[in-house]
Amino acid sequence: MRGVSRTGWLVALLVTQILIMAALLGWSATVHDQIRMPLEARLPEPRPGIHLPARDLLEKVNILSGPEYLGIELLTPFRRSLSFQEGQMFWIFLQRRLSMGTPLVERAREAVREAEVAKRIQDGLCDGFLSFLYDVGGHRDVARQNWAATAVGELQASPLLPWAKKLDFVALSSLAETSVGGLRFVTDLNPEVLLILPEHDPVRFRGLRLFHQQPHAVVLPVGVHALAPGLWAQVLVAPVGTGHPAELNLLVEGGDGRIVLISGSSLNRPLVSLRQAKQSLGRRISTYVGSTGYVTAVDTSDLQDEIQAIHHEFPDLILIPNGDTSLLAHCALEALLGPSYRPGRLGARVDL
C-alpha cells in the first residue's frame, strides 16, 4: 500500500508539473503573438466578460514602471497583475495613417536590408495604428509581465483586433540600464524588432549582447525629427562631462493640437527639452510626461528655481513624472505646482 501511495503521489506531481508547463507555454505564446504575429495569423480569443471600447485604448500613454499602484484607481482588471519595475517603460498606442514616403517608413526601409523583414515592418507601420514601447524598464521578466497585462490583455478585450495586434517598434531614450534593461524580453521573441535610438556609443550597444545579427536600428542625430503624422523624436546632446552621447524624447500631438512631451532625459533639464520642442514645432507644449531625473537629483533650492522657471515660461504645463520620482521631490513638486502636478504611477494612463 505504501508503494502504491508513493506511486500515486509521484503521478499526481508529474501531472501538476505538466499542467503548469502547459499554462506557461500558453502565456508565452500569447505574448509572442502580440509582438510578432503575422497579419494573416489566427487571432487569439478575447477574454470572456471583459470588453474595452476602442476609446479607452487609443491615443494613450500607459505607464508600465514605477511603484505599485500607490493609491491610483486601476483602469482595468488586467492592470492588477502589474509589478514594480525600476526605470521607466511606456506603452503608447496611436491611430495614425502612414504610407510609403512617411519619414518613419522610409527610415525603416533604409535600416532593414532583408526584403521580407522590411516588408513585414512596413506593413505593420502602415496598418493604421502605431503600437510601440518607449523605454523598457530595468528587468526583462517584469517588462514582459507588464506588457502582457496591458497591451496583450487589453487589446484582446477590445474591438481593435486584428489591426492592432503587434509591436511596431521600440524607441529608447538612451542605453542606460534603467531604460534598456527589459529589452531582452522583446528580442527573445522577435530579434527582428525595429529600434529607434539616439546617437550612442556602438561599443556600449554591442555590449548589451541582445542580437545575434546586425540589429534593425534607426539612429537619429541631434535635433527634432518628424516620424509620423503628429509624432516627432527630439534628440538632445547630453551635458558635457556626463559621458552620454545623447538622449531621445518623444513629442506627440494630442487631439486638440497640443503637444505632449514624453521624456527619457535624466541628464538634461526639463526646461531645455521644453524650450527646444516649442521652438522647433512652434506649438504649445501642454504636458510633460516621464523622466525628471535632473529635477530629482538636485537640491531643493535648485529644484524650486527650475520649477519656477518652467512655470514662468509654460504656465499651463501639466507635469506627470514617472514613478522613479523621490519622495522629497514629490513633496516639493506638489507644493510648487499644486493641481498642475500629477505624479505618474504604475498602471496609470495619460490621455493624448
Overview of the structural elements:
The chain has 352 residues and is an alpha/beta fold. Helix 2 packs antiparallel against helix 3 (115-125) and helix 10 (300-313) packs parallel to helix 11. The protein has helices spanning 2-36, 103-111, 115-125, 140-156, 177-180, 184-189, 202-207, 270-281, 293-297, 300-313, 327-337; strands at residues 60-63, 89-95, 129-136, 169-171, 194-198, 216-220, 223-228, 231-237, 246-253, 259-263, 285-290, 318-321, 349-351. It starts with a helix and ends with a strand. The protein has eleven helices and 13 strands. It has one domain: Metallo-beta-lactamase, Chain A (4-Layer Sandwich).
Short synopsis of the structure:
The chain is an alpha/beta fold. Helices cover 37% and strands 20% of the residues. It has a seven-stranded mixed sheet. Strands 7-8-9-10-11-12 form a six-stranded mixed sheet.
Into how many domains do the coordinates divide?
1
Integer-rounded radius of gyration: 21 Å
**CATH fold call:** Metallo-beta-lactamase, Chain A
Main sheet: strands, sense, barrel = 7 strands, mixed
What percentage of residues falls in helices of 4 or more residues?
A: 25-40%
Shape type: globular
CA(first)-CA(last) distance: 68 Å
How big a fraction of the residues is strand?
15-25%
